[in-house]
Design a protein that fits this description.
Helices cover 44% and strands 16% of the residues. By secondary structure, it is of the alpha/beta class. The strands form three sheets. Strands 2-8-7-6-5-3-4 form a seven-stranded mixed sheet, with helices on both faces.
């Protein structure tokens, strides 16, 4: 029986290799000479020596330097720093905040909890895998999907389904992790107002910290927070920390404390991580220059790729993606880039739909324009050598 199980696993791996879709863990050297284009550290804070030194010298670090919570929050893991961070987030966003160990934990736990309330979920086809996993865990799946950022597709689904459910929750990202484009948030809010019992669930994993005034993301930037029922923020990207939160009203916060299994049954994050996150939020207003530079890098690099290459180029901010379609071609481009000094792993199915394999370039505020200009030249050279 064990041999049979192993054989099935081996067959699965062989199929992945045949489709150029096999994954492996590649050790990353901190002193690598490759320019890292795969990190979500959009503000460059993780490697910012001054930022890190000030955190280590701060009262937050000294007062909350515990390396393990050693328990869930509902037992003995609810350290003071949890309340301090949640209170600060409530002040910034005028919503109750509830912390989770990661964006994945937040999405899976919250979606499963909401599913018990006779909800229909209508999700953008490009939502993150953590949303998909949360939806797939349902005993009786009640969800539909609309074409990416296509409001006519969404409106049609709303018109057909609102009278059949107690509530509908629309799932979208603020800034999409693969396409790098923004959700049409104002249109989503307009549809919420048009139909009854519709709620908005927006994941700002890739826009919190890096976008908007004081880096507080798309919903805050557009002054639409009051219309967002569930706002997910993650701390492991621009904020260079770990963890996530949901921002919602007080009723739902209490509901998730009592029903989100990923919260109830997980050891809480180490207090030192929460101290790091709070320090980062306090520092965000000082980082306008970094956000402005990141915006210019994104705009200029996308324009350059569109000018130099015949491939489709996606992205509005932070994330610029070159659509190469076939897995094998994306893998080839990635390997050629590594030889030229650039680390940009191929993004393949299931991270993107079939025939949509791409190179995803995560830009950071500590990058210089010259490096990206050289990257565009290298991509052009690889393109001609591949033809």
């Amino acid at each position: 029986m064990q041999h049979s199980l192993e054989s099935k696993a081996l067959e699965y791996l062989q199929r992945l290799k045949k489709d150029s879709n096999f994954r492996s863990l590649t050790p990353q050297k901190h002193n690598s000479t490759l320019l890292n284009l795969a990190s979500n550290d959009y503000l460059g804070l993780s490697s910012n020596a001054d930022f890190n030194a000030r955190f280590l010298d701060s009262a937050l670090f000294k007062e909350h330097c515990h390396f393990s919570a050693s328990s869930s929050r509902l037992l003995s893991g609810n350290f003071e720093i949890y309340s301090l961070l949640e209170t600060h987030l409530k002040m910034l966003f005028n919503k109750e905040a509830l912390l989770f160990n990661s964006g994945y934990h937040a999405n899976v736990g919250i979606l499963n909890a909401l599913n018990a309330l006779n909800v229909l979920f209508i999700a953008d086809k490009s939502i993150h895998a953590s949303h998909i996993d949360g939806l797939k865990n349902f005993k009786k799946p009640s969800f539909k999907r609309f074409l990416h950022n296509d409001m006519e597709s969404l409106e049609s689904l709303l018109a057909k389904n609102t009278k059949h459910y107690d509530a509908i929750v629309i799932l979208s990202e603020g800034l999409f992790s693969m396409e790098g484009d923004f959700a049409p948030l104002e249109k989503l809010v307009a549809l919420k107002k048009e139909f009854k019992n519709v709620h908005l669930y927006i994941d700002e994993a890739h826009s919190i910290g890096s976008f908007g005034q004081n880096g507080l993301g798309l919903c805050k930037h557009l002054d639409l927070l009051e219309h967002i029922d569930f706002l997910i923020l993650t701390f492991g990207k621009s904020l260079s920390s770990m963890g996530a939160c949901v921002l919602c009203n007080g009723v739902f916060k209490d509901y998730f404390i009592n029903s989100a299994r990923s919260l109830i049954y997980s050891t809480a994050l180490p207090p030192i991580n929460l101290a790091r996150t709070l320090f980062a939020f306090l520092e965000l207003p000082k980082l306008e220059a970094q956000r402005a530079h990141l915006a210019n890098l994104s705009k200029d690099f996308k324009a350059l790729l569109q000018q130099e290459l015949d491939y489709e180029v996606l992205g509005d901010y932070n994330i610029i993606s070159l659509v190469l379609k076939e897995n094998a071609r994306a893998v080839h481009f990635s390997k050629m880039l590594a030889r030229e000094g650039y680390f940009a792993p191929a993004i393949k199915t299931p991270s993107v739909p079939p025939n949509k394999a791409l190179l995803r370039f995560s830009l950071m505020a500590n990058m210089e324009s010259k490096a990206l200009e050289n990257l565009a030249k290298v991509l052009k050279k690889i393109t001609y050598a591949t033809l």
